[in-house]
Amino acid sequence: MELPSQIDLREILDLAVAKRIRGFYSQIERVGAHLVFAGDRDTAAFDEQLGEL
Amino acid sequence: MEIPAELLQQIHKSGYLRVHIRPTEFHKARLRDTTHCHSVILQAAVATNGWQYPIVMDTVDERGPDWIAGKATLDYLIEYWRFFQSGQFVHHLALREDHWGRLGLYHPQFFVPAKDRKYLSVTQAISTVTDVIEFGARLAYRGVLAPRALVSIEFHGMAGRELTYMTPGRRLPDSFWFQDESVRLEGSYKIEELIGRPRDIAIQLF
Asked: Where do the domains of chain B lie?
């Protein structure tokens, strides 16, 4: 039996991660939640402070 | 929040710069109060070209619930800045080159502007960008911008504006002008980087 190369293993890992992320997104869609990232919250707070300036 | 509309209109009538410096993380009271804001900005202000950047007085021009502001309306120095307790700093300043022309301050021995032509002085622009980055480094040194700083410098009213040294004997090898109305220089820096090599960053930005 031929052993998978390092690249093959990485691809398998990528696929596993992609599947988990897809699962996570479908769960978000089911409950109707919105993703909020910490960076976006900071930017929004700075923008609000700045107003038209 | 009251915006000084009249002063901003005056600044935006000609070419102008908008400088924006802030940390990546928002904390409403990084600085204890507006008195602390004033003390930090007084210590962080720089002067590499005979003028302070930003122009800060011993007393605060304007004060809000969580910010202080400063302004200048002197001949070709037309500026407005605001500094928040969160560490956010924004500055609108008129391009001095336009007002030197308006006030007839060019000495014919040094520079004769062509009619209806707009200019950007190479040395003035380098000096301003260097001042802005050095000012950012000094804010970072005082812990205002941790863990990372965002710096942007926008030039407005640029389309058709010619780059020049404005001094006799120094010439660019060709005629260069800006093709777009706005030009934006921006970067995101770790505070150690900003404190450690502000001049390199200024050169890279420019």
From this structure: 16-205
The H or E element spanning position B202 is helix B198-205
pTM > 0.90: yes or no? no
Beta-carbon separation of A49 and B86 below 8 A:
yes
How many domains is chain A built from? Answer: 1
Quick check: B93 and B79 in contact, CB under 8 A? yes
Q: Residue B11 has which token pair?
A: 């600044």
Task: Look at residue A1 and tell me if it is in a domain.
Answer: no
Domain range for A27: 6-50
Q: Which residue on chain B is closest to A38 by alpha carbon?
A: B25
**Residues of chain A contacting B25 with CB distance shorter than 8 Å:** 42
Tokens coding B42: 């007084």
Q: Note the pLDDT tens digit of each residue in B114-140.
A: 888 899 999 889 999 999 999 999 999
Task: Give chain B's mean pLDDT.
Answer: 91
- Among A42, A49, A52, the residue with its CB nearest the CB of B84 is A49
ipTM over cut 0.90: no
- Cβ distance B24 to A50 less than 8 Å, yes or no, reads no
- Do the domain assignments include residue A15? yes
| pLDDT of A4 | 58
